[in-house]
Structure formats: structure tokens, C-alpha cells
Design a protein that fits this description.
Layout (H helix, E strand, L loop, with lengths): L10 E2 L2 H10 L7 E5 L5 H8 L3 E6 L2 H10 L6 E5 L7 H4 L7 E6 L5 H10 L4 E9 H8 L9 H7 L2 E9 L4 E2 L6 E8 L10 H13 L5 H11 L3 H5 L4 H11 L13 H15 L1
Parallel strand pairs: 2-3, 2-5, 3-4, 5-6
Antiparallel strand pairs: 1-8, 6-9, 7-9
């Protein structure tokens, strides 16, 4: 079967890596696992061997049909022919099966949107174990102060405990991708425990802080408030630039440091102060 590179089809074939991925999902016998992009079912087989019930979401009709043929008569597998970014997660994870786990060898080009969608419904999942491009996995888990710490780090770590697990080389796939991959584990925080008071404003502040990451955190956010991604906060009629001064002063934030030196709790505090003062 010809693989479709345009939808990121690189099948994980290395048995050792497949086994480690299945174990990373921490499935329990009889528990529900949502597998994203199962392809020919290599990881599916390992998940079933661990006793999981698997809901496999596959976009490619050819792969879905092959999966159904390969596992015909397996009552613990359900194949859903759908785009994971469009399907309802509530439909995939019935209330009686919550929290489930999610896993998959994610297409590189949409790995971040998939992760965000899953983490946005943290009440549905106890764990997300995903295989992603190495660079993306490193950024998800990067600590403050490192060169890889940025918007993706903050968005993931604000709602989940993130851990980079292991690297998977190109030769573990068919066809081999051009770069290394890595497995990451994300354990969503309990609903409401992140401390974020308004998701929209939090998202804007994070983007504003890192929009000009070579500048100081103060200057990057100031430019974004005046003419960048945070402009809508100023367009609301508020003196957002003046508001920034009082927020930084009250929280005793050193505006001369670069954005990558602000940890997640500090960024959440900044966003929450904007939320309260713009109310």
C-alpha cells in the first residue's frame, strides 16, 4: 500500500519502540485507549496485548479498512474513520470510560494541534503518550531558561505534567522520516487546577511575551499590546500598555529579562492580572 506523505504517514515498525510506546500509555486491562493514526495497526497490536480496549481514529480510508480486516473478530477494537481534529472527543470517550488514555504516532505537521485538543479536555484523559518530532517533544518539556523553552512549553506545562521519555531514530519507521522522533508523556492536571482564569487572555499574553523573544519580556509584550498579537486587548478601549506597567510593578517582575526566563506560574499570574483588571 502506497503511503501518503502529504498526511504524514511514517509507520513505526520497530518492535522495541512499539512496545515502549504501548507501555508509556500505561493502559490497564479493560481500560479504554484512544489511538490516533493507527495506520496498519502495529501499535494497536501492542496495546491490545496489554489488555486495553482500543478506539482507533484513522483518517485514511484505506488504512481503516485494512485495520478492520487485520483485526476482524477482535471485540476490543473499534475503528473510527475520522479526522481527530474534527471528531468529538466526547463521542470517543463515553462517560463510563473516563478518564481514558490517548496515544499515537502523530503526524508531524499537526502534532501540536492534536496535543492541544486532547489537553483542552483534561477531564477525559489521565495520560497522553505521543510520538512526535524530536524538536517538538523537546520544546514541550523544556524548562524555563533553556533555549527550547517557549510558547509550546508554556501552553503544555500550564495544563499538564510533561516528560520527554525516549528518542526514536528514523530507521524505526517506514519510510524513515528526515529527523529523529521522541516519545512524550503528558499527564493532564485536574480540571481547574492550572490556575488560569481566562484561557483566551492567557493565550494572548503567552503569545505576546514570546512574539519578539529576542527582546526583553517587557518590550515584547509592549509591542504586542500596541501593534501585535495582543492588540485586541488595547482595542477593547483599555489602556493595556499602562496596565502592563502596573501588572509588572505589582508582581515585581523584572522586565529586563527575556521571555524564556519567566516560569509558567509567573506567566499565569501576569495573565490573571490582565484578566481581573480588564473585567
Amino acid at each position: 500500500m502506497r503511503l501518503r506523505k502529504e498526511i504524514g504517514q511514517h509507520l513505526l515498525t520497530d518492535r522495541g519502540a512499539l512496545r515502549r510506546m504501548a507501555e508509556a500509555a500505561r493502559v490497564v486491562p479493560g481500560g479504554l485507549c484512544v489511538e490516533i493514526g493507527p495506520g496498519t495497526g502495529n501499535l494497536t497490536r501492542e496495546l491490545l496485548a496489554l489488555g486495553a480496549r482500543v478506539v482507533a481514529v484513522e483518517l485514511d480510508e484505506r488504512m481503516a479498512a485494512r485495520l478492520e480486516r487485520s483485526f476482524s473478530g477482535e471485540p476490543r477494537l473499534s475503528v473510527v474513520r475520522a479526522d481527530i481534529l474534527k471528531v468529538s472527543l466526547d463521542d470517543l470517550v463515553p462517560e463510563a470510560d473516563r478518564p481514558a488514555v490517548a496515544t499515537g504516532n502523530l503526524p508531524y505537521y499537526i502534532s501540536s494541534p492534536i496535543i492541544f485538543k486532547l489537553l483542552d479536555r483534561s477531564e477525559l484523559f489521565s495520560r497522553v503518550a505521543a510520538l512526535v518530532q524530536k524538536e517538538v517533544g523537546v520544546r514541550m518539556c523544556a524548562p524555563p531558561g533553556s533555549r527550547d523553552y517557549g510558547m509550546l512549553s508554556v501552553f503544555c506545562q500550564a495544563v499538564a505534567e510533561c516528560e520527554e521519555l525516549f528518542t526514536v531514530p528514523p530507521e524505526a519507521f517506514n519510510p524513515p522520516p528526515a529527523v529523529d522522533s521522541c516519545a512524550v508523556s503528558l499527564a493532564p492536571l485536574p480540571p481547574g487546577s492550572s490556575g488560569v482564569e481566562d484561557r483566551r487572555i492567557f493565550s494572548l499574553i503567552v503569545r505576546g511575551l514570546f512574539e519578539h523573544r529576542r527582546k526583553t519580556c517587557y518590550n515584547s509584550l509592549r509591542i504586542s499590546l500596541l501593534k501585535g498579537v495582543c492588540r485586541e486587548l488595547s482595542d477593547s478601549g483599555a489602556d493595556a500598555a499602562g496596565l502592563q506597567d502596573s501588572v509588572f510593578s505589582d508582581l515585581k517582575i523584572d522586565g529586563s529579562v527575556r521571555p524564556e526566563h519567566l516560569d509558567v506560574p509567573t506567566i499565569i499570574k501576569v495573565a490573571n492580572e490582565f484578566t481581573r483588571r480588564l473585567a
